[in-house]
Amino acid sequence: ICKVLQGFSLSPTQLHRRLFSRVGAPRWNDHDSPEEFNFASDVLDYWAQMEEEGKRGPNPAFWWVNGQGDEIKWSFRKLRDLTCRTANVFQQICGLQQGDHLALILPRVPEWWLVTVGCIRTGIIFMPGTTQLKAKDILYRIQMSRAKAIVTTASLVPEVESVASECPDLKTKLVVSDHSHEGWLDFWSLIKSASPDHTCIKSKMKDPMAIFFTSGTTGYPKMAKHNQGLAFRSYMPSCRKLLKLKTSDILWCMSDPGWILATLGCLIEPWTSGCTVFIHHLLQFDPKVIVEVLFKYPITQCLAAPGVYRMVLQQKTSNLRFPTLEHCTTGGESLLPEEYEQWKQRTGLSIHEVYGQSETGISSATLREMKIKRGSVGKAILPFDLQIIDEKGNILPPNTEGYIGIRIKPTRPLGLFMEYENSPENTSEVECGDFYNSGDRATIDEEGYIWFLGRGDDVINASGYRIGPAEVENALVEHPAVAESAVVSSPDKDRGEVVKAFIVLNPEFLSHDQEQLIKELQHHVKSVTAPYKYPRKVEFVSELPKTVTGKIKRKELRNKEFGQL
Ligand code: ATP
Ligand code: MG
């Protein structure tokens, strides 16, 4: 064998890669499930190898700016070096092992990518969290997950310290900071002295990789545990059609690093295709900065929550014809058709919507080349068999409202979460016949497009009509007075339930006569959508209750209406 290899003048590793090159032309189909997969060795190291062989263009793999003149550009080779060092630090200095839990609470700094890939190399399960978490949120997460390690930023050291004594499992605390902190290991000092040689674990497809805490929109966040299948799924031909990324693409995903969307959009999706991850530190969502960045850097694709597009659109005067931007994607909340239209008019670009959960990654989408139906969340993406089901798991016919379900029997598809960590009750609660029940209500049309109506209990049942909040919110936002609104059900002694809108007004309308404005808004809704949807009750508020992700907590408003706190 050695002689044969010499004949090829390639090292065994090179030969292996040549023969089994996985990324350039995927050798797996949508229903394949290889025994072993590891995102670090199968994807990142593959691209590092391609760079070494001169087979990848000049763009960096990672391009980070902070708006204050600092800039980092790393190749895949550099990333391989740094993430191998990180893996060595975790195993050798911190004594962490495959299967241990690590809480990762960093802002959009380059170290976030080093930690995630370092974890994947070693089999340590990373659990991203947003830096907006406070001491009690961190305590909840560390206790629930029995995390052995945390990597965080200087500003959160006091929050962690205030609860650390209540977390007996937490042995390792690493900080990314310019100065030292007592009781904390300094990330960069350790990385600098660590070896860049590391042997990646051979992970099984079913080995856990990450735990994502749900947003907690309806209660306490749940811990959705995912295996390597989450990363493998991006490889599948059907999933590649989502963004159709090429190595020359530069993708800017603005999701907070704490959410599954960041793991997908800032890490897995772009690097699977060997393209550039662009990141702006973005301490706050300043629409002016977003517009500037889209003009200044050669970004070809962006991915952000609907609220980000909304904020940019509210910059009424700016020119929004971005020079290199080709494709926009959104998800996490409903994109209102009105916002889609405005974006299209002002930028010349369509926004493609995806729908998913921490439990599912991306379940459905309007793929890059698919016809867009405004207001729909696109079609199911393989290997998910997505159906509209009733409470017992029976499949409902097209155009009939029910729950969005994903088939789990006879086989649980790759990319769907494994379970809620430490909570078999919650896990079995969402199993419904042969399906996982997402808890979201929708219909599906004859062409397979999914029409999201709302979370199970956000749907309003008024006089026998079923009304999704987004339908009314969309009608309201078309009126110039409305900056934002949340529509919920409210009790009514004659009608049972009625539609109520909580509205944040645009500043110019604050001084208007409120009674008059309510009438005008009601009239407006009746004129642009089916009249039964109009809000019989309207309340003006200065802001809406939101989760740290920025999602509207309709449940909180509804509970107040029904007198529960
Ligand atoms: P929790 O499960 O703790 O209540 P959460 O469901 O908000 O929180 P996530 O997993 O972050 O936590 O969010 C998934 C939910 O977001 C979906 O179940 C759905 O209700 C909503 N969602 C996601 N994408 C879309 C979309 N394109 N349109 C409308 N809603 C969406
Ligand atoms: Mg949820």
Q: Could you explain the architecture of this structure?
A:
The protein has 565 residues and is of the alpha/beta class. 31% of the residues lie in helices and 23% in strands. The chain has 18 helices and 27 strands. Strands 2-1-11-10-12-13-14-15-16 form a 9-stranded mixed beta sheet. A 5-stranded parallel beta sheet has the order 4-3-5-6-7, with helices on both faces. Strands 17, 18, 20, 21 and 22 form a 5-stranded antiparallel beta sheet that branches. Helix 14 links the parallel strand 13 and strand 14. Helix 4 crosses helix 5 (111-122). The N and C termini lie far apart (72 Å). Residues 1-26 have low confidence and may be disordered. The protein binds adenosine-5'-triphosphate and magnesium ion.
What radius of gyration results from the CA coordinates?
A: 24 Å
Largest sheet: 9 strands, mixed
Q: What is the share of helical residues?
A: 25-40%
Strand content: 15-25%
Mean pLDDT: 92
The total of helices stands at 18
Oligomer: single chain
Global shape:
globular
The ligands bound in this entry are: adenosine-5'-triphosphate, magnesium ion
Derived from helix and strand composition plus strand pairing, the structural class reads alpha/beta
Residue windows where pLDDT falls under 50 for at least 5 positions? 1-26
Order of strands, main sheet, comes to 2-1-11-10-12-13-14-15-16
- Count every beta strand, where a strand is a DSSP E run of 2 or more residues: 27
Ends distance? 72 Å
